């Protein structure tokens, strides 16, 4: 195996994301990043806010995993629980993969003004919750199925168009969504790469040994299968590297794999429904996205060195954004034990997937609403609909 092939395989892992993130944080602590300053003393306040948010959202501290399934709830109704879905555990797992994998790919930031009005519940909602409900309704309508009589499958993804996504997501001139064509092309690329997402369910079940499957293996299967779907990304000896970037302060690549890890967290429950025990969930990392990252900026843990950077939009491959996202992963590892200490829980009782859900993501949204009228992130990122 060539050195480049070995490097590519290494980069397609959660361990590589974590290793590089902590290297980036060490550089920031030493003043070695041109774009960011870090003040770790401010983590105490960030942990206070996060623990307080956990208690407010889940007074019994029974926090579910951070996963797409949390976004299929409207006005207290679990819309996936209400859906007409298979009763056989294996077929249920396949249907769940067919829904949640496209749904995660559709979850990149929609912009501050887009909203989805759900006729069945009367709820109107934007951002991730709106995207979640809209994608579920699109799936239920059979828009991803080759057979109108069997809507709950996604075997016709190559036929998805931007116009079709716009219709199901209620996109209009007065209800715009960023990255619409990027989302549709991601679904088409997913169809070309794997056919039906349910195929990945069967692959992961086969990887389980003694009925157990490590969460990092979920991510590896996804990264190897979905590598070709990401547009305009780096590759190494023909191996697509996905959500992996260059940064001038480090030698080599900065892997992040945000959407793929979000997807990995979201596939844990369908595998559990099918009787697979998912282990080493903390082998995945925190998510390098603007809610978690925004928490650290808004709480003063991270500060842009050039104040003008806070007032301009930045490309996803810019050193400022790559550094911000990588620092976010490392800081979440620092934050998690502090939150557990405040809640009186162990790492086994409150893994990172619960810290994120309870949690840092919600706290990031909460402080954003307090600081900005639109509740948007503290740093504007130019999105093509495939990163955040």
In short:
The chain has 388 residues and is mainly α. The protein contains 14 helices and 14 strands.
Side by side, the strands of the main sheet go: 1-12
The proportion of strand residues reads: 5-15%
In whole angstroms, how far apart are the ends?
Answer: 33 Å
Classify the helix fraction into a percent range: 40-55%
Largest sheet: 2 strands, antiparallel
Average predicted confidence as pLDDT: 94
Q: How many DSSP-defined strands?
A: 14
Number of domains: 2
Shape assignment: globular
Question: Structural class per helix/strand content?
Answer: mainly alpha
Radius of gyration: 20 Å
Q: What is the H/E order? A: HHEHEEHHEEHHHHEHEEEEHEHEEHHE
Q: What is the count of helical runs? A: 14
Show unreliable segments: none
Describe the structure.
The protein is 49% helix and 10% strand. β2 and β3 (77-78) form a beta hairpin. It has 2 domains: 1-66 and 209-388, no CATH class; 69-196, no CATH class. The chain has 14 helices and 14 strands. The protein has helices at 3-11, 14-29, 43-57, 79-82, 89-105, 127-140, 162-168, 180-194, 198-207, 215-226, 258-273, 290-298, 319-343, 352-371, and strands at residues 36-38, 73-74, 77-78, 115-118, 123-126, 212-214, 235-236, 239-240, 244-246, 253-255, 277-279, 302-304, 313-315, 380-382. The mean pLDDT is 94. The chain is globular, with a radius of gyration of 20 Å. The protein is mainly alpha-helical. The strands form 7 sheets. Strands 1-12 form a two-stranded antiparallel ribbon.
